[in-house]
Amino acid sequence: MNDRAGDTIGVFYSLGPHFAATLGRLRELHPDARIVAIVPHGFPIAGEENSLADEVVETELAHYSSRDVAACLRLISRLRGARYDLFVVMFASARLGLLASLSGSRRRACAPPQGTLIPLESGPLRTLASEALRRVTGALVFAGLHAMTRLTRIRT
Amino acid sequence: MRIAFVDLVFSWPPNGGADVDLYHTISGLQSAGHEVHLFVPSADTWERGAFDPAALPFPSTRIPFTRLGLRPGAVARGLRDAVDAWRPDAVFIGDGFFFKPALIEALSHYPCVGRFYAYEIACMRDLLLYKDGAPCPCNYLVTPKTCRACALEGMKDGILRWRFLTWTHEFLAAGAFMPSYHARLSRALGKLRAAIVYNPLQAEQLRGHCDRVHIVPGGVNVSGYDCTPVPAKDAAAPKIILMAGRVEDPMKGLAVIRAAGERLWQERQDFQIWATHTDRTLNSRWFRSVGWHTPAALKAFYRDADICVVPSIWEEPFGLVAVEAMASGRPVCVSRVGGLQSIVAHGETGFVFDPGDSAGLSGCLRQLLDDAPLRAAMGGAARRRAESEYDWDRIVATHYPGILEDLRR
């Protein structure tokens, strides 16, 4: 996450208590970078966030669902078009990891509420494969647990 | 007395009220002349052992584990070895979830006291004892089969996605889904010399499993809160009604205060509700999400407030936010749940209303909004009650000598 003068950092908003803190932390780490806050449509940005970000851009929708395929593709296309040098999401979820990997940014990171900045290095295929493996593991474990709770008795 | 404190999830800055409670209990007992030491397993996660020992006012040890190494047997052995090396007279076992039985067993050669901060023994699902929009009457110690199935249902999404937090990790790693876990838990509870809980409901849940159960409230450092008089605002000036805490959590009752606010706004426009909520899309002429704030920054919000509200709809084990508001000299309206209902003296330091009763809450707020002297009188009484009942020094001095005396016998 080395600082480079003139870098543009995109920070993708998610509902959480640490959006302003994340902008502030990035400003400290990258004093010369241009920081863009990407917020949901109609989002009432606060004064503190406004002062920490060089630019605030709104997404097309207030909420995205995986069913809105066309809107998701437009969002990805817009992020890729912005050519962020660093793209930051606020949680380490599968969806945000995938969005980061599809953002076209060379460097991607997750900024969870604890104040750290964790690099996200996987590409889209690896992110999808890792997610699929997680789901298979989860399904197998859950099936085993479900069978156990149905088939075993607890003596009190 | 040499007292070891063992906590499975302590972090500082705190992740919740349990960390704050443990911090002040250890500090208080140290100030009272006891030798204390905190032992915590740490792993690469914000939920467990995220603190700098040098930043704590009492001695502490973090015992490192890898994520894969976080198994109940290994954690219990690691903590036992560290505690044995320190040679305490007694052990207090703080917060933790499904690893607690293994930990109690491993430390049972000492007089052990177990501290239970929520419903982690009774509710396997998520320690909240709250399901389908209402408090749940079950207790794992009594209805283990029902609770085990409910727990699995509650954790289903996390397990299927294979992404989960400490609660589910401990459930899986401790084999809490196995039939034998119930007997292990019962046996471990029987080995405790005493248990400490926040409220009578928790005490009732442990009945028959632990001989001595002490109800000890949480508290605040009252002197750390400025007690400014409730602002004497004229009729036209907007009065601030503050809801602080983890407002995002639906169980905290944001919907109740918003319904009450909507009702009041129909008849008067002399108030604003501020909530420590991060979703600003809810903002309106009478409602403002003021964002999340550190405990230190929150004091300024209490100072600006005229009335505080804690409208929880679950059986809140304690209710630290209500005590903080009282320490700031503000009248508080709380719902009649768990430990919260006993914090406010109804009609003296604020009002108590039925959980989920937005009409009842709007009635309480109407009375306070209409009557500036009542707000001031209740605010003053609230501060006095916080000083006499909920100051940490007072709590440690009142409740702990008896508990420690029992351990010496």
Largest interface: A-B, 32 and 28 residues
User: What's the number of domains of chain B?
Assistant: 2
Major sheet details of chain B: 7 strands, parallel
CATH architecture of the largest domain in chain B: 3-Layer(aba) Sandwich
CATH class of the largest domain in chain A, please? Alpha Beta
Remind me, CATH topology of the largest domain in chain A?
A: Rossmann fold
Assembly annotation: heterodimer
Report on the structure:
The complex is a heterodimer of chains A (156) and B (409). Chain A is elongated and about 65 Å long. Helices cover 44% and strands 16% of the residues of chain A. Chain A is an alpha/beta fold and 156 residues long. Chain A has two domains: 8-121, Rossmann fold; 122-156. In chain A, strand 1, helix 1 (19-29) and strand 2 (34-39) form a beta-alpha-beta unit. Chain A has five helices and six strands, in the order E-H-E-H-E-H-E-H-E-E-H. Chain A has a six-stranded mixed beta sheet, with helices on both faces. The termini of chain A are far apart. Chain B is α/β, with parallel strands linked by helices and 409 residues long. Chain B folds into two domains: 2-219 and 392-408, Rossmann fold (3-Layer(aba) Sandwich); 222-389, Glycogen Phosphorylase B (Rossmann fold, 3-Layer(aba) Sandwich). Chain B is built from 13 helices and 15 strands. Chain B has helices at 17-31, 72-86, 100-106, 144-161, 166-173, 180-191, 200-206, 254-267, 295-304, 320-327, 358-370, 372-389, 392-408; strands spanning 2-6, 35-42, 60-64, 90-93, 112-115, 130-131, 134-135, 194-197, 213-215, 239-243, 271-275, 287-289, 307-310, 332-335, 350-353. A seven-stranded parallel beta sheet of chain B has the order 3-2-1-4-5-8-9, with helices on both faces. In chain B, strands 12-11-10-13-14-15 form a six-stranded parallel beta sheet, sandwiched between helices. A two-stranded antiparallel ribbon of chain B has the order 6-7. In chain B, a hairpin with a 2-residue loop joins strand 6 and strand 7. In chain B, helix 2 packs parallel to helix 3 and helix 10 packs across helix 12. The two termini of chain B are 13 Å apart. Classes of the chains: A alpha/beta (156), B alpha/beta (409). Chain A binds chain B through residues 15-20, 42-44, 46, 62, 93-94, 112-114, 134-135, 137-139, 141-142, 145-146, 148-149, 152-156, and chain B through 46, 50, 142, 144-145, 148-149, 152, 156, 159-163, 172, 177-179, 182-183, 248, 278-281, 283, 291-292.
